[in-house]
């Protein structure tokens, strides 16, 4: 995201940005694989989406409330707390946020969340539970 002021790109805007950066844009059929077809079949049979929560998804949603809270001069930590308590499903979610200045904040509303961070000033933290 070094070439964009945005933290999240989606839909037509994301495709336009990709073209501007010289990336090849392919037809959606390119992403239909045997593995994906099998995963869809399992999801339909289970009547739920099977998602592996162990794998972090950078920039996923970024909680619009996080940006709104940050704009109101609230700390990164306050914004994360708001997202975790008010916006994310109880008992299933965790969030790690890094501000533009490198401030790291995290929160979760489940039993534990594997996490780790290291900052430029030498601070390091690894944790699972609160």
From TrEMBL:
Specify the superkingdom: Eukaryota
This protein's name: Isoaspartyl peptidase/L-asparaginase 2
Q: Which Pfam families match?
A: Asparaginase_2 (PF01112)
Q: Which InterPro entries match?
A: Ntn_hydrolases_N, Peptidase_T2
In alphabetical order, the GO MF annotations are: hydrolase activity
Spell out where the chain crosses the membrane: none
State the oligomer form and interacting partners: Heterotetramer of two alpha and two beta chains arranged as a dimer of alpha/beta heterodimers.
């Amino acid at each position: 995201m070094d070439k964009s002021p945005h933290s999240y790109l989606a839909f037509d805007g994301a495709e336009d940005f990709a073209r501007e950066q010289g990336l090849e844009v392919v037809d959606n059929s390119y992403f239909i694989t045997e593995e994906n077809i099998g995963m869809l079949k399992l999801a339909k049979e289970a009547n739920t989406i099977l998602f592996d929560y162990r794998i972090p998804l950078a920039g996923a949603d970024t909680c619009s409330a996080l940006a709104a809270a940050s704009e109101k001069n609230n700390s990164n930590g306050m914004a994360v707390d708001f997202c975790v308590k008010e916006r994310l499903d109880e008992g299933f979610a965790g969030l790690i946020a890094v501000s533009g200045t490198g401030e790291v904040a995290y929160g979760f509303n489940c039993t534990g969340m594997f996490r780790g961070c290291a900052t430029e000033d030498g601070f390091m933290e690894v944790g699972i539970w609160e």
